[in-house]
Amino acid sequence: MRKGELTHQTILETAVRLASRVGLQGLSIGGLAEELGLSKSGLFAHFKSKTELQVQVLEAATVVFTGRVVRPALGRARGEPRVRALFDGWLTWDRDSLLEGGCIFVAAAAELDDAPGPARDTLVQGQRDWLDCLAQAARIAVAEGHFQKALDVEQFAHDQYAVMLGFHHAKRLMRDPQAEARARRAFDALVTAARTPTS
Amino acid sequence: MRKGELTHQTILETAVRLASRVGLQGLSIGGLAEELGLSKSGLFAHFKSKTELQVQVLEAATVVFTGRVVRPALGRARGEPRVRALFDGWLTWDRDSLLEGGCIFVAAAAELDDAPGPARDTLVQGQRDWLDCLAQAARIAVAEGHFQKALDVEQFAHDQYAVMLGFHHAKRLMRDPQAEARARRAFDALVTAARTPTS
DNA sequence: CCCTTCATAGAACGGTCGTGCTTTTCGTGC
DNA sequence: GCACGAAAAGCACGACCGTTCTATGAAGGG
C-alpha cells in the first residue's frame, strides 16, 4: 500500500470520530489537520473539496458500521436471534467509545435533511441499505416461523429504527441512565407483537 | 410596546424558521440580518452574544410549540383523546410550513447533544417538559380507565416520542411518502398495547 | 420644542473557514 | 544511489464568522 493510502485511511478514521462529536458541518479541515498533526493543505490534498471529505467520511463510517454491526449479526442464527443481534449491535455501536458523539449517521441525518448534495445522497443511500437490512432480517424471521406470516416487515424495520432513534435521543441528549432499559423494553414489545398474530 | 421589543420579536420569528432549516449552529447573525434587511450590528445589539440568541430562539420556539401543539391538546377530552391529540399535533407541527426544516428541537438535539452550555441546557429542559407532558397525558388516560392501570407512563411517553422521531427521520431525511402512515400505525399499536393489560 | 434615551447603521477587529499555488521533503523503483 | 513522482508543507487569497466601538437617526417625555 502506498504511503498516501495509509494516511488517507488514518485521516478518515479520525475524521469519523471527530464528526460524530461536532457533525459533518462542524468538521473543519483545519481542526482535523491539527488533531492529526498535519498541515491544512497537506490534508486537503487528499480530498478535492470539503464535500468530498464529507462523502468519504460517511462511506468510511458505513464500512465500520457494516463490520461492527451488520456482519456480526449475519453470523447469528437466522430469524429472531439475528433480528435481536442487529438491535443489540446498534445499541453497542451508538454508545461505543469509538464514536464519542454517538452514531454519526443520526447526527448527519439532522444536519443534512435539508441540504441537498452528494453528502446527503450518500447518507440517504446508506440509511436505505440499513433499513433494507433490518427488513430483510425480519423477513427471514417470518420465513423461519419466528414472526407471524402477515407481518409488515418494512413497518417492523421502521419501528425498530424508531426505537433506536429514541434511544439515541434519551441517551445522548437527555443523558437518561434508563435509556437502554427503555429501548430494550420497547424493542421487546415490538418483537412480542411481531410473534403473536394480530387478534 | 417599545419599538425595539417589536423588532426583537420579528427577529426571533424569522430566526426560528431559519434555524429549523440550517440548525442553531448554522444560524449566522449576518445571514439572519440580511434576511430581515437589518444591519449585522443592529441585530446583534438585541442579543449580547450568539449563545444568547440561540437560547432565545429555543425559548421562542417553545412558546410557539406550546401554543400550537400542547394548548390545543389540553382543550381535548382527558384520557386517550388528549394523548392522540398530542401525537397528531406534533405530526402537524413537524410538517408545518412554518418550520420549513422540520421540528427545530429535533435538529437542535443532534447538534447540541455534545455541546455543553446554556443552549443545550435550555433545549434539555424543554424536552424534559415535553416528555413530562406526554407522560402526564398518559397518566390521565390511566386514571380515566382508558389505559391499563399498570401502564408505565414514562415508558409510554418515551415510546411515543420515539415514534415521532422515527417519523421525522423517515419524512425529512428519507422523504418517505409513507412516513405519516407508518408513524400512525406504530402509534396505534402503542395505544392498543396500552389499553389491553399485559398477558 | 428640546433633550434624553433608545434603536439602528457603519466600519473595523482578529480569527477561522475552504481553497488554490508553489515549494520542499520524502518514499520508492530502477 | 539517483532520479522521479508522490506527499506534505508553507503561504496567501477572499469570504464570512462573532464581536466591539462609534456615530447617526428616530421616539418619546417634559
Automatic annotation (TrEMBL), chains A, B:
GO terms for molecular function: DNA binding. Residues 5-65 form the HTH tetR-type domain. Residues 28-47 bind DNA. Keywords: DNA-binding, Transcription, Transcription regulation. It comes from the Bacteria. Signal peptide: none annotated. Transmembrane segments: none annotated. The keyword NADP does not apply. Pfam families: TetR_C_13, TetR_N. This is TetR/AcrR family transcriptional regulator.
